[in-house]
Amino acid sequence: MIDLTEAPPPLKQESPELLARIYQLFRDYFDKAEKKRRWSIKDDIPWKECNKSLPRSISDVLETFSAVELYLPDYLAKLIPQVRTNRGRSWMLANWGYEECKHSMAFEDWLLHSGSRSEEQLADLEANVFSYDWNLPYDNARGMVCYTMIQELATAIHYENLKKIVHAEGGCPALERTLQLVAIDERAHADFFRRLVSLYLEDDRDATLEQLRRVFNTFAMPAVHMLADSQQRMTEVKELRIFDEETYLYEVCEPILAKLGLTRKDMRRRKSSREIVAMGAKT
Ligand SMILES: [Fe+2]
Ligand SMILES: [Fe+2]
Q1: Virtual CA dihedral for 235, 55, 164, 29, nearest 10 degrees?
Q2: Tens digit of pLDDT for each residue in 122-167?
Q3: Which chain residues have CB less than 5 Å from ligand 2, an ion?
Q4: Residue 165 and residue 185: Cα distance in Å, rounded?
Q5: Ligand 2 center from residue 186 Cα (angstroms)
Q6: How far, in Å, from the CA of 189 to the mean position of ligand 2?
């Protein structure tokens, strides 16, 4: 586990060269998204082929995912001030917000089309969501990019696994297509934020590694715990075998570390200065 009593190494000021590289990363992401990844809720999902008799557990879990996506105003309101002078990162958040709002609307549309929820039930869910504020789980922009990188890949895997379950339970072309389109977006987000973490590692390795350690060792999915019936919702995700500790370790942590050129050993706690002094005294 990480040593929270030890202050992490100070983060280096971002140089104009680094800011220019981050902006270029965003432009490449944006240009590719415009060309290959734009989709329409109205036209690209076969709404007429909606299976109205899937097991209730599927619509319950989809409602949970929809609630997590509904916290978008909090995500944007709290993330943008951390990076407002970093154009690549703040423009990315604006674009990310556009893509995320589609996810929340597409999930809600399926809940309505399938007859699983009424307009009133969705209004109640929204009211419940906004009775709590989502707060930043890490107090600095470097830690938050590490967090977002992990969370985006974990989210993609939740949706991909739910899609497999829907298929096995008799299928629903509308929901399967929705989950596929949204998961492709989530993987693109994870890839962007991973490339961003690579730039920070190149520029300021020790401080970035320390932020990565903190996040890898304490990660939790956003917002679920804030919902009124959070325990039940998390149990449902587990019972459907959508995501568990093993998934986190082998499908999220290991692939990300490999792409960053790191290993699990790099994520173990660094020695605190007190321990280093004590080791020196023994030799
Ligand atoms: Fe999303
Ligand atoms: Fe995302």
Answers
A1: -70
A2: 999 998 888 888 888 898 999 999 999 999 999 999 999 999 999 9
A3: 152, 186, 189
A4: 20
A5: 4
A6: 5
